[in-house]
Specification:
The complex is a heterodimer of chains A (332) and B (325). With 332 residues, chain A is an all-alpha fold. Chain A has 14 helices and two strands. In chain A, β1 (133-134) and β2 (137-138) form a beta hairpin. In chain A, α1 runs antiparallel to α3 (46-80) and α5 runs antiparallel to α6. Chain A starts with a helix and ends in an 11-residue tail after the last helix. The relative contact order of chain A is 0.17. Chain B is globular, with a radius of gyration of 22 Å. The relative contact order of chain B is 0.12. The longest helix of chain B has 15 residues, at 143-157. Chain B has 325 residues and is an alpha/beta fold. In chain B, 34% of the residues lie in helices and 24% in strands. Classes of the chains: A mainly alpha (332), B alpha/beta (325). At the A-B interface, α9 and α10 of A face α2 and β6 of B.
């Protein structure tokens, strides 16, 4: 299959997953009326409200979160040349989790919580970058060490908060930690999307740099890349994307770690193709998983992050660890 | 194009000063070898010339422009550095690896390759004889082929100065010879090549040899002058022998320096001559002889290989005493 065909099928998969997300959900609506509502956007009624105010924003948020996490993971794995890196390495999710836990424990109004989490996540990422700097550049190993250490510290504080708050608050915190886009609407999307868009823009700009960095920083430097600047750009892009995703959906693991692997497997290590493939694959996978999380246990919802881990991790292990597989973690 | 000069360069690694005041120039189309003991700062010197490290004093200029004032991209059009190792990007084709060399020739917003890029990458692959492997994953190449691919990368970059750090390490003699010949072909036109080498006989194939040790440039000149055993002894603190046959200069370590006994190696025009030991120390000579199988002894003894016998013996003797080089 040619590259264009593969990317085209991935784009189709995104559309299919998003459409599916509109048709299924907690309340069983007849497919015909959902279709009718989709074709008549200005109609009113219960079905229109459910489709346009509940499901549509959710599906869009799911696609955005999936693409953002996948691209963020792709960028960081490429920058650090480490296939085990995920977007939360920068400490964003742990910082956001701590802020969220504290805010909920303090009884802060729920609408402010995502904004607070976003701010705390960005601050943590800055702290990690500050700890990881060496000279004017970023040191890959220090970044990993700083990210893991701060995450561990913040997780401990979150656990402490969980033991100190009441039952109601702790279940809200746990729901956030498990990752979910239940109850998110257009407002949340419009609020977080600008950060994601800037992140995607930066990601596109650093693709040639990522390609040059495949052979190591020294080769990249020798062929004319300003490695220091490229590292800061990549870290900024990854941070913005992850922060937007965390503000929208809490902690959703697996996507940022595994989707880039699948994308490289499908289209090779060339950043131009692999980045697009990561974005599309993430944007297809998360709406699909979200649709499943709403229907499998309806009317209850399985947390999205939990579901993705339950389905994704065994798939990933099967793909990479089966004895017959000659494939490697890094690349095709 | 391709004229590089170091003026009074001072370089340090951490708190240790490697070079206090080093100056030399490299002219276009020159093939220069840098040799010196481990830890002398050869790699740091290359990285300084490449503009990766800014000297504490003095400056490195390429065609008159100080390297550290150039942007990364401008610098890469003038000079490139092939390190002794690079990452293995699993699943990346040889062609993509070589195409990395075109990075500086594109603007940052250009995602695609220019038409000229494809042609230049193709030419580079052909030059190193890897055109047939273009679509293979880089990691499936042998060490020698990988080194050739990396040289193709430098070729595709079209920089006028190619710096190479230990290009023949981990390679068997045949591949090492191949890589050196390839580097030789690169040092043409406006392009010059500077290689850090450990094998002194390989360095002897360069146009010019620089010997660095103890923060100093001990020698700078044609191999015949620079690779003088007395200079090498100062650099490495062991004794050396050198031979020349059919215009090929061979320098081998001989063993620990013996105080009061200066090196007795001499070059005898054209034919190899044993420089050392055998005549002085019968016991040692005997050991050497018993080390050979009977057949070799017979051939050497009968002089069937003119001019080789003694040199071969001396070489073996060295190998025995100093371990594999």
């Amino acid at each position: 299959m040619t590259v264009a065909l593969r990317l085209g099928s991935l784009a189709l998969a995104v559309c299919a997953a998003m459409l599916l997300g509109l048709f299924v959900g907690g309340s069983a609506l007849p497919a015909a009326s959902v279709a009718w509502t989709l074709l008549h956007p200005h109609a009113s009624g219960d079905v229109a409200t459910i489709v346009w105010q509940l499901r549509a924003p959710r599906v869009c948020i799911a696609a955005l979160v999936g693409a953002a996490l996948a691209v963020s993971g792709f960028l960081l794995q490429g920058m650090l040349r480490n296939p085990l890196v995920d977007p939360f390495l920068t400490g964003i999710s742990s910082g956001a989790a701590l802020a969220t836990a504290l805010a909920i424990a303090a009884g802060l109004a729920i609408p402010f919580v995502p904004a607070l989490g976003f701010g705390a996540g960005l601050l943590t990422a800055l702290a990690v970058a500050f700890l990881a700097r060496r000279g004017s550049g970023l040191d890959a190993e220090r970044l990993i060490l700083a990210g893991i250490s701060l995450s561990a510290l913040f997780s401990a504080f979150v656990a402490l908060a969980l033991t100190r708050v009441g039952r109601a608050s702790s279940s809200t915190i746990l729901a956030w930690l498990a990752g979910s886009i239940a109850g998110r609407g257009w407002n949340d999307l419009f609020w977080a999307a600008p950060y994601a868009i800037v992140g995607f823009g930066l990601a596109l700009a650093v693709v040639p740099a990522l390609n040059a960095m495949r052979l190591g920083d020294d080769v990249a430097r020798a062929v004319g890349l300003d490695v220091v600047r490229a590292n800061w750009m990549i870290l900024s892009a990854a941070t913005l994307l992850t922060a937007a995703a965390v503000a929208l959906a809490g902690t959703i693991g697996f996507v940022g770690l595994i989707v880039p692997h699948l994308a490289r497997r499908m289209l090779g290590t060339d950043g131009r193709k692999a980045l697009l493939a990561s974005a599309l694959l993430g944007a297809a996978l998360v709406p699909l998983a979200d649709a499943a999380s709403r229907t499998l246990w309806a009317p209850a919802e399985i947390p999205l992050g939990v579901l993705l881990a339950i389905i994704g991790v065994p798939t990933f292990l099967y793909l990479y660890l089966r004895p017959a597989s000659a494939t490697r973690m890094w690349g095709t | 194009m391709g004229h590089v000069a170091l003026h009074g360069v001072r370089v340090a690694a951490g708190t240790r000063t490697l070079f206090e005041n080093i100056s030399f120039e490299i002219a276009p189309a020159e093939f220069v070898a840098i040799v010196g003991p481990n830890g002398a700062g050869k790699t740091t010197l290359l990285r300084t010339i490449a503009g990766f490290i800014r000297p504490l004093a003095g400056e490195v200029t390429i065609d008159g422009a100080p390297v550290h004032r150039l942007s990364a991209r401008e610098r890469a059009l003038g000079v490139t550095l092939l390190g002794s190792e690079s990452e293995l990007p699993y699943g990346t084709s040889v062609r993509d690896v070589v195409a990395t060399g075109r990075f500086a020739h594109r603007d940052w917003w250009e995602w695609g390759e220019r038409e000229s890029d494809g042609r230049i990458v193709g030419d580079a692959l052909r030059h190193v004889d890897l055109a047939e492997c273009a679509d293979r994953p880089f990691e499936t190449l042998s060490s020698g082929e990988r080194q050739r691919a990396r040289i193709a990368l430098a070729l595709a970059q079209e920089a006028s100065l190619v710096l190479v750090d230990e290009p023949t390490s981990h390679l068997d003699p045949r591949f090492a010879h191949e890589i050196l010949s390839l580097l030789r072909t690169l040092a043409e036109g406006p392009r010059s090549v500077v290689a850090v080498l450990h094998d002194l006989s390989q360095a002897a194939a360069a146009d010019r040899v620089l010997i660095v040790a103890d923060g100093e440039l001990l020698a700078d000149g044609p191999p015949r002058d620079a690779l003088d055993p007395s200079i090498l002894e100062r650099a490495y603190h062991i004794a050396f022998s050198r031979f020349e046959q059919d215009g090929v200069l061979t320098v081998v370590p001989r063993g620990p320096l013996v105080p009061g006994r200066s090196d007795d190696a001499r070059i005898a025009g054209g034919s190899a001559q044993r420089m050392d030991v055998a005549g002085e120390d019968p016991a040692r000579t005997a050991t050497v002889r018993t080390g050979h199988d009977a057949n070799t002894d017979r051939i050497l003894g009968a002089g069937l290989v003119p001019g080789v016998g003694d040199a071969g013996l001396a070489g073996d003797d060295d190998g025995r005493r100093t371990g594999p080089r």
